[in-house]
Amino acid sequence: MSKTLVPIGIAVLVLAIGISQWTYMNTLTEKERLIATSRFPIVGYPAPAFSLPRLSGGRMSLAEAAGRPAVINFWATWCGLCEKEMPVFQALEERAGDRIAVLSICSGSSQDAARAVVATGGYTFPVLYDADRAIARAYQPKEEGAARQVTAFPFTAFVDVDGTVVYARAGIFTSLDDLLGRLKAVEFPID
Length: 191
Prior knowledge:
Elements: H1 2-27, H2 30-36, E1 51-53, E2 59-61, E3 70-76, H3 80-96, E4 101-107, H4 111-121, E5 127-130, H5 134-139, E6 155-159, E7 165-170, H6 176-185
Parallel strand pairs: 3-4, 4-5
Antiparallel strand pairs: 1-2, 3-6, 6-7
């Protein structure tokens, strides 16, 4: 009799845990759900501060976006997908640049190569240069259990007005609608 009760007890326990998890996930807002299910260690934590050279001259820091949420896109000049994605961020800049700070951070190659990409595309959002990938690595910390740190490009992080990373993604946004959908999910000011 007890051999039959053990599998039933385990099944009841698994079912209770499943119902509990489902109930918990259904009580979360879309923003909270995205944070809770993120694979990136940076999500849910304060955004790493930075001050980097602007390709157009001078320096810019994350603190300059204070009071507005920020979309930070990391890219490299050798990354074809990165260049393909940049018009999506230009469209975001044109649509919501007064409400959302759109920042672009280039890593690798040279500032001249990055300037050429920006000039060819006619991009108007601030483009910063992260020569040694220190900031890219700060936003993509080594995952627990990983043998080494991998820095992926393109990579995008959303930082809310409180300075918390609420979303991070390695990969390309293929359209403005794709990007706007994610921004709405984390309650960024999009019409």
